[in-house]
Amino acid sequence: MRVTTRLLAATFAIGASLVMPAFAEGPGTDAFGNRITSSKFDPNIPTGLFHDISTTGALIAVGDDTGAAANLGGLVFPFYGVNYTDLYFSTNGYVSTLLTDGGGDFTNDPVLPTVPSSGGGGRIYVYHDDLEARVFGQYFNQASSPIGTEAFIAQWNACHFACDPNNPAETTLLFNAMLLRDGTVIMAYDQVSAEAGGGATVGIQNPALTDGVAYLVNESVMTDGMTVIVYSTVDHMFTPAVVPLGGLGDDTTIAAAELGMLQNNAQSGLVGDAVDAAFAGNSDANVMTASTGTYAMGARINGLSVWAGGSAVGLSGRFGPSVSGRSHGFHSGIDYMVTPWVLGGVSFAYNQARLSVGMFSANQTAYSVEPYVGLLLADVVKVKASFSYAKTRYGQVVSPFGTFSADGNRFAGTLSASTSISLPIDGLALVPEVSISAGQEKITNLSGFIAIPVDTARFVAAEATAKIEKTFVTGGGTGKIYGLAGVDHVSTNGNNTIALFASNYRNTRTGGVAGAGISFNSTSGFSIDANVVGRGLGTSAHSVEGRARIGFTF
């Protein structure tokens, strides 16, 4: 506590502010490529990120002009091209790379970089001022983190000089520094006191004192709940590579792969039903979907059929983290029976989807076109093939770090084969079917307060089932009751080593398939089909999907 010296420093800062534009609060970038900005300058940066660890974290230091070194608990933190596993935390509101810093630097500097009045090393000035504080620290792995990614969180419960930091009534400054594995620093301010930054510096500088950037110096403009973030705009090719919030881009890859699989399955199911209906010999048959909440109808005239339908698919389960998703859309198509054994057509779809993975969610809109062909081999084996292109828009990619957007172009293909084998029991048939589909989606950078690269999303799905059908006849029409069983395999991509919110995401899963359903075709032309199918059974990465279709022939 040095009141006289502090007043002199404040006088110098006020005088310097007349000629130093760096005093003005605002974003900036240093020569190394570190960018500093805040929720006040970019509405995409969320507020209210402060996480209180005063009852769960370890007490690192307490008092006036002091501090202590602390291990980061497993976090490897890159800062100006060097990886750190230990840092020094000062009660005066800064972090130093010099483990013998001492913590006594109580005079905030008006320009960064600047040789500090005491101590040294590279600095993270979270709220550099003459403070008395209790400093806490806590390591969070990806699963336990309050922000969904591996982090070391430091917290200052502080007050200005001549106060008792152990008295909660006097600690009018409460703030975090969240250090992430990709080098990002999130400074979250719960309370900024009446001074509100009027005697403080917020910024960073390198250990050589040759580079740095300030966000604020001696301006009373900070607000409770605000967030300041430091991130690298350049990958400097050291380990771990500095890709700002790179895990957020990876979570988008994960979501894109899962949503792409959901939508591809819905559309290929529609196409498969179109082929089945055509080869069933029902020239005026309704072509119906195989997706939840379906309605579709169409007719074949002189070899042509036009059809339309709607779909809604639900997904839930645990693929490591809790995963839930849904997709619904409108579909239409036209096909032509070239010969009794060859069918060609094209379908169109509009889909909306949402997927949540852990603390991450993404909303997507997609427009797709899908040419398809069907072949009837030896009058018993149906082969269906389709290829689709979808233009996708991720209008809301939501995370604790804010909301982003991106665009994508998805390509996918599906190939399946099935046959029907009559059994000795009257009306009973065995219908084995195998299918495989694969796709990939190239996605633009996430657009928000920063641009985040996103890897190409990929998925592969394969399924083999055997269905037992029992045909029944009533006075009003005919129907089938069936059950099915089999196995499925799904593989999607996503480098979970740096995924921010998809903790322990399981991108490959193989499990059982089981389901049952009923269909009925009335003599008046009304038809209905409903079923429920579970996939990934026997594993924790399972899903249950309900399907229904309703149609009319005319």
Report what the structure shows.
Residues 1-22, 236-241 and 281-301 have low confidence and may be disordered. The strands form five sheets. Strands 17-18-19-20-21-22-23-25-28-29-30-31-32 form a 13-stranded mixed beta barrel. Strands 1-2-16-13-12-11-10-3 form an eight-stranded antiparallel beta sheet, with no helix packed on it. The termini are far apart. The radius of gyration is 31 Å and the shape is elongated. The chain has helices at residues 3-17, 246-279, and strands at 28-29, 34-38, 58-64, 67-71, 77-79, 82-84, 86-90, 94-96, 123-128, 131-140, 151-160, 173-180, 185-192, 201-205, 212-217, 227-232, 294-301, 304-318, 322-339, 342-357, 360-377, 381-399, 402-419, 421-422, 428-443, 446-447, 451-452, 457-474, 477-492, 508-522, 526-537, 543-552. With 554 residues, the protein is mainly β.
Strand order of the largest sheet: 17-18-19-20-21-22-23-25-28-29-30-31-32
Number of strands: 32
- Quickly give the structural class: mainly beta
What separation lies between the terminal Cα atoms?
89 Å
Continuous helix count: 2
Mean pLDDT: 84
**Low-pLDDT stretches:** 1-22, 236-241, 281-301
CA-based gyration radius:
31 Å
The percentage helix is under 10%
Principal-axis shape equals elongated
Which keywords apply here?
13-stranded mixed beta barrel, mainly beta, 554 residues, eight-stranded antiparallel beta sheet, disordered N terminus
